[in-house]
Amino acid sequence: METLNAAEGTFDIVYNDIDKGDYPKAWLASRERIRPGGLFICDNTLWSGRVTGATEVEDRRPEWTAAIDEMNHAVAADPSYLSSILPIRDGVTVALRLDRAP
Questions:
Q1: What is the b/e burial string over 73-88, where b = at least 16 CB atoms within 10 angstroms of the residue's CB?
Q2: N or C: less crowded end of the chain, CB within 10 Å?
């Protein structure tokens, strides 16, 4: 987050794989900094199925699960982005910034 906030300008790609509790903050800090046609990519967005409730994996960090779920919903609801969660490994969100204002 410090590096992103210190950098100037816009980005072609922002790749997010930080502490999961900060995922919503990372999305908010990134979304306006990605140029139209650019990508927001985020790892671990299925969180071993915890965000869907479709797993019996113990949730030792429910606050992280809630943060990932919050970010997933925010990305999906953003009209400036076309997004999908790829169900590979632990889930990868790929969101394309569209060439239109929210």
A1: ebbeebebbebebeee
A2: C
Set out the domains of the chain in order of their start, with CATH numbers. 2-57+69-97 (3.40.50.150)
Q: What is the pTM of this model?
A: 0.90
CB 65 within 8 A of CB 59: yes
Burial annotation 38-60 (CB, 10 A radius, 16+ → b, else e): bbbebbbbbbbebbeeeeeeeee
Per residue in 31-88, pLDDT (tens digit) is: 999 999 999 999 999 998 899 887 777 888 999 999 999 999 999 999 999 999 999 9
The Cα 86–Cα 31 span in angstroms is 19
